[in-house]
């Protein structure tokens, strides 16, 4: 099958499956500093196989050209930051999306982080048809994933990827059958919004336990206020020694951050959090 793939490193294993068993015409990806998983590996793999890589949004006209002139048989989306514009009246169009929740619960760009914010005991991953309504297409398959006290958001991304690959292999062993038997989603449940920035922000009056819990939920979305600016945290470890200042810089991207019962050793991105 000829596929145009949209996604990042989150579901890299699905991309690698298609590389071995199908033909990928193009990769559309993106970069976001707050994402723990970026596009580094998937872009590298695409380039190694001579697959063109695009960062710009796709247009309905380009999608139509893929299907009508280049033999595309499927648009496959897995952790992508834009809505796919489905061309009107294109009978050949088929699109599939991997979403990290048990739809119809958890329609969101932040389904995993929102699941932790809501304190859910389980969530999951869903493969569904692309539809004009975001995350609203017919469900092809889905798997539930338990959230234990030891599970953090990166664990969930990894588990979602493992389950997605299993489903993709099963679906493509009988693609027509799975496609035909997809089921409509139930009620239109509320869209999960981005977690409030206050929930993701570290402060000097926190304990080490509280700070680590925040990073466990939000990882690369965690924010550290430093010198009147706000930075993403992409690495964290605790220390028990108390500092005589709020922040001690070790390098442009490493610092010690005072807490009420010790300190944090942070790796930060020198990028101000956009508002």
3D architecture notes:
There is one protein chain. With 275 residues, the chain is of the alpha/beta class. The chain has seven helices and twelve strands. It folds into two domains: 2-180, Rossmann fold (3-Layer(aba) Sandwich); 197-272, Formyl transferase, C-terminal domain (Methionyl-tRNA Fmet Formyltransferase, Chain A, domain 2, Roll). It has a seven-stranded mixed β-sheet with strand order 3-2-1-4-5-6-7. Helix 1 links the parallel strand 1 and strand 2. Helix 1 (12-21) packs parallel to helix 5. The N and C termini lie far apart (42 Å).
Would you spell out the secondary-structure blueprint of this structure?
Elements: E1 2-7, H1 12-21, E2 23-28, H2 40-48, E3 53-54, H3 60-69, E4 74-78, E5 95-99, H4 111-117, E6 122-129, E7 139-146, H5 153-173, H6 175-180, H7 208-218, E8 223-226, E9 229-239, E10 247-251, E11 254-259, E12 262-272
Parallel strand pairs: 1-2, 1-4, 2-3, 4-5
Antiparallel strand pairs: 5-6, 6-7, 8-9, 9-12, 10-11, 11-12
Short description:
The protein is α/β, with parallel strands linked by helices. The chain is 27% helix and 28% strand.
């Amino acid at each position: 099958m000829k596929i145009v793939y949209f996604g990042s490193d989150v579901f890299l294993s699905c991309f690698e499956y298609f590389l071995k068993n199908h033909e990928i015409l193009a990769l559309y990806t993106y970069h976001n500093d707050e994402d723990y998983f970026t596009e580094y590996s998937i872009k590298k793999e695409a380039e190694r196989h001579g697959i063109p890589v695009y960062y710009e949004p796709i247009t309905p006209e380009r999608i139509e050209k893929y299907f009508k002139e280049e033999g595309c048989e499927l648009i496959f989306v897995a952790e992508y930051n834009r809505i796919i514009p489905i061309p009107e009246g294109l009978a050949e169009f088929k699109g599939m999306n991997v979403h990290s929740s048990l739809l119809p619960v958890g329609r969101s760009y932040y389904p995993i982080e929102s699941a932790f914010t809501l304190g859910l005991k389980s969530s999951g991953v869903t493969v569904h048809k692309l539809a004009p309504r975001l995350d609203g297409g017919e469900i092809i398959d889905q798997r539930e994933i338990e959230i234990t006290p030891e599970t953090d958001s990166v664990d969930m991304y990894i588990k979602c990827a493992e389950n997605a690959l299993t489903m993709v292999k099963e679906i493509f062993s009988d693609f027509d059958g799975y496609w035909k038997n997809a089921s409509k989603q139930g009620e239109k449940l509320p869209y999960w919004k981005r977690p409030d920035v206050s929930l993701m922000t570290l402060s000097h009056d926190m304990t080490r336990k509280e700070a680590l819990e925040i990073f466990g939920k939000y990882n690369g979305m965690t924010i550290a206020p430093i010198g009147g600016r706000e930075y993403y945290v992409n690495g964290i470890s605790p220390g028990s020694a108390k500092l005589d200042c709020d922040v001690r810089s070790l390098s442009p991207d490493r610092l010690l951050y005072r807490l009420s019962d010790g300190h944090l050793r942070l790796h930060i991105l020198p990028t101000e959090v956009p508002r």
